Amino acid sequence: MSTGGMTSPTPSTATADTATAEATRAPIRFNPFGAEFRRSPYPLYARLRGAQPVHRTLGMWVLTRHADVRGVLHDRTFSAGLIPQLVSRQASRLSRDDVARIGRLATKSLVFTDNPDHARLRGLVNRVFTAQAVAELRPRVHEVAERLVRRAWDDGGMDVVADLAGPLPLTVMCDWMALPDSLRERVGPWTHDIRFLLEPGLMKTEDFTRVSDVVETFAQALDDVVTERRSRPGDDLISRLLAARTAGGDRLSDEEVVFVCIMCFVAGNETTKSLIGNGLLALLQHPDQDARLRRRPELLGGAVDEALRYDSPLQLTKRVATREVEIDGSRIRAGDQVLLCLGAANRDPAVFSRPDEFDITRDARGHLAFGHGMHGCLGGILAQLQAQVALDRLYRRAERLELLVTQPDWQDHSFIVRGLKQLPVSVRGVG
Asked: Which of 351, 342, 340 lies closest to 369 in space, CA to CA?
């Protein structure tokens, strides 16, 4: 990747997938909204990697090779600030309140800010989201997962998505924040609405208005909690965020704490739910790996890493170029949008041997499922912990798990998140 005399991260070398030699002769149409793509995007990714790894379509550039995707994620001249751009385009159709509400979230959120604002927020939040802090949550994650699994086993089976993968991350985050019971049932629906901000290209004027209303409602509810914690701090996440200080005395404002908490739910819930569902599906569709994990439970951490690589919950993310740059001979201009196919990068044969095989013994740590660089997923460690505990509880509670569907039904409410609508399983030998 280069522009003028300046050199950016080194691009990948041209690497054709062996399985795409014939397929690459036909025109390639990238359609992330189609039913075939939802069933499995990986054959299309392979064709693009082999024939058009830097692909121009739908008014944006589509990147599919690991080195190119990683390079853009690493390059800080590519901006994550898509929301202000889209809000400005919709400004004439939106009320001033709608523009202000969404604008506040976008300019005070880790997900959508660039440096120096991002570096400041990240530096403060990193003081709270530590590996040690997440490790301290393990007993509670274990307790919640055990309760959910035990309840479902009473009927001899469960829908893993509805009964375990969905409620687990919501419950754990509500517990970590010590939210009052009156808020807990409302957080899930609010989160579902606000997650539209992660794929703003799908948003219409009415969506912006609805999200604006939900942001305001959610923020007001959390503001009351933040005010209470400032006067009576505890050991919860909100209290720790309020207490975080830099050496120079900088701290998060109450409003910034509110928006950090909102984005913890928005960015973490759906992806963690999908990781658990996708991971179990991959295991049950590969009986040899399922049996291997039962024989060697110490492989659980590697199994979760491989699940992240093999069927990434977050398939796509977008950036905006702020300067002209060349990638593999294609000139990307300032203002161009770039769609990064994380799922394609994670099956790049230039990085992972036999990439279309699910192998829990491989070293999959080079995956980009949590992104890379300054916007790398802050909650990745927590997501992995919850997936490990959920799978551990499932495998320890049953001698055998069997899929009750031959063709899984994939969700269609998001085009960047790949997750199951449901995952019904039966159990044998309940313990």
From this structure: 342
